[in-house]
Amino acid sequence: MNKPLFQLKDVVKTVHPNGGQPLNILDHVSIDIYPGDFITILGSNGAGKSTFFNVIGGNLPITSGQLLLNGKDITKTSVEKRTQFLSRVFQDPKLGTAPRMTVAENLLLAEKRGEKRFLKPRHLRREMGKYKQITSQLHNHLSDRLDTPTGNLSGGQRQTLSFLMATIKRPEMLLLDEHTAALDPNTSSELMTLTNRTIKEQQLTCLMITHHLDDALKYGNRLLVLNQGQIEADVRGAEKQALTKQDLYHFFDPTN
Fold first, then answer.
1. How many CA atoms lie within 13 A of 105 on its CB side?
2. Do the Cβ atoms of 157 and 145 come closer than 8 Å?
3. Are residues 222 and 37 in contact, defined by beta-carbon separation less than 8 angstroms?
4. DSSP alpha helices (H): ranges in the chain?
5. Cα separation of 83 and 71, whole Å?
6. Of 208, 105, 209, which is closest to residue 150 (Cα–Cα)?
7. CA dihedral 171, 177, 179, 181 (to 10 degrees)
8. Sign of the dihedral defined by the CA atoms of residues 90, 94, 95, 99, in that order
9. Per-residue pLDDT tens digits for 118-148
10. Helices (H), strands (E): how many in the chain?
11. How confident is the model at residue 20 (pLDDT cuts 50, 70, 90)?
């Protein structure tokens, strides 16, 4: 069997709300993530989904436990250094892009993710043909706006750009934090189709938080359910394919 790409080992994240009693928003979480996994993640508000991503991304230090990348301890590795192997798309289309830079400039910047920066010519113009092709994958006219400042784009165009920036330089891990939640149903569907195709073509390892039960069932080879900071279910393979919406409702029924 393949060795895990990324591991959380007995990870705890403790907070003290309003200076009160300690609360574990991640409560002894352990999981092995394998190369090529496409994991969809469900959980009610406060289940720990965002904390889970922030811990993986390095935005939140953990209270105890370990984070391993290819068996190497990266628990104390900075957010900046984690961009060498990790990229993330947020729910808010305004995050993840530089609003005053053009679409093409944002894509050029994304190609340098995780690299040291030097003062040297950008050679932006010679990349325009490539960027035109990349941005034409959705029929939202993004490819006609390469010279447009990102702040002037529609929400759907900006979120498409965020996703393209996250994957233009293949990451070892991709985190999708409800990246279609702020979009209209048609745009959301188109971006999910692009997402699934890109993950398959690039053979990416991806974790995707979603509140769409249909997407959680349709996409990926594994499904996680988080509840009160713990992994309540980790369903994969044929068992995941056999899941129904009713099965998922069962996890969110407080009487169970």
1. 12
2. yes
3. yes
4. 49-57, 79-82, 103-111, 128-135, 155-167, 185-202, 213-218, 237-241, 245-251
5. 18
6. 105
7. 170
8. positive
9. 444 567 888 899 999 999 988 899 999 999 9
10. 9, 10
11. confident
Q: Are 99 and 151 in contact (CB under 8 A)?
A: yes
Q: Residues 208, 174, 200, CA angle at the centre, nearest 5°?
A: 85
**In terms of C-beta distances under 8 Å and separation of at least 24 residues, what long-range contacts does 230-237 make, across chains too?**
230/27, 230/28, 230/29, 230/48, 231/29, 231/30, 231/31, 234/31
CA 6 – CA 31 distance, rounded (Å): 8
Rounded Cα gap, residues 115 and 106, in angstroms: 15
User: Where residue 1 falls among pLDDT bands split at 50, 70, 90?
Assistant: low
Distances from the Cα of 193 to the Cα of 75, 175, 188, 247, angstroms: 34, 16, 9, 24
CA distance 158 to 155: 5
> Which of 199, 219, 218 is closest to 87 using CA atoms?
199
The two tokens of residue 77 are: 């590795």
- 221-249 tens-digit pLDDT: 999 999 999 999 999 999 999 999 999 88
**Owner of token pair 């990266």:** 74
**Tokens describing residue 174:** 């991709």
CA atoms within 13 A on the CB side of 248: 24
pLDDT one-digit tens code per residue, 67-120: 999 999 999 999 999 999 999 999 998 888 999 999 999 999 898 876 665 444
DSSP 3-state of 72: strand
Distance CA 160, CA 188 (A): 10
